[in-house]
Amino acid sequence: MTRHQLTATLTALNREWAALCHEHRRLPSSWRLACAGVPADKGLEQVLDAVRADPDATLLGLLALHRAGDPLAGRVVIQAMLGKLVLMAVRDAQASLPDYLAAMWERVASYPVNRRRRRVAANLALDTLKSVKSNRWQLGSELPGLHAESVTGAAPDPAAALDDADRVLAEGARLGVISELIRATMRCVYVEGRTGADAAAVLGATPSAVRQRCSQGVRALRASAPVLAGQLVG
User: What InterPro entries does this protein map onto (predicted)?
Assistant: First the structure.
């Protein structure tokens, strides 16, 4: 992602965090057990200090609060992990910080607090990285249809693979397997190679909507793979 995009996202997050710290200068009473190391008259910044001092216990407490319906606890986890998310995004030529943030929120919401109680921060970071990588364009495994490798047994030609993807999407839309909206969204991601955040900006959608459309489209195309292959071969 560009430096401008990174700076804009970080600025927005830090402004939000500053506002939250101002609003929550004392911890909610429901946090006392989860954040036992933080005095009741302290605020969110001190919770971050507790994460640094005792990461597993504090993060597990916050994750449990989030699972119980407290979104503020999840936001504190995001802030605690923000430095790592920035590093991963900077090193990634394809995914952006919003992509990593979206993936981290998913991990925060689904983290198994009763089963994975050690190295919580490392687990969250690794799971987030895996999630971003798994959502990345993998043409041969995601889109059914004709690919150079499947036809010739040779290594796929990237240009031919892109052409195949475009043909599969166009045929899927023509047959009514996917809608035109889903075709356009998938083309943005799979053919043009845009990140979820970039595709969302182009399409006037949210990154989560882009992911949902792509997931729905992939499932529909896979289910109709024999029909699509027959049409494309013919």
Answer: RNA_pol_sigma_r3/r4-like, WH-like_DNA-bd_sf
